[in-house]
Design brief:
86 residues, elongated, transmembrane helix
């Protein structure tokens, strides 16, 4: 009834007030970047797009994912370093 109509009006008002993202905004920024930086910009944009997180959260999540992906290399490096010093 009336509650559904009011909720519909509110949802429409909120949806219309949120600006659409500029298409290719990150691609334009990454176009002149050095390849590793451009790849990182695209990775952050992909995470932002697929998760719907804010930019700051997308950057933080990207950092956590990269640090997690690097753990095996860090452990291997530490083990090889221990063999040299022992």
């Amino acid at each position: 009834g009336e509650v559904d109509a009011a909720a519909s009006v509110l949802v429409d008002a909120v949806a219309s007030s949120v600006p659409a993202p500029f298409p290719g905004e990150v691609a334009a920024a990454a176009a002149d970047s050095f390849f590793p930086f451009a790849a990182l910009q695209h990775l952050i944009d992909t995470i932002h797009t697929f998760t719907g997180l804010n930019w700051w959260a997308s950057i933080a999540l990207t950092a956590v994912l990269i640090r997690t992906a690097v753990i095996p290399f860090t452990v291997s490096h530490q083990k090889s370093g221990e063999k040299i010093h022992v």
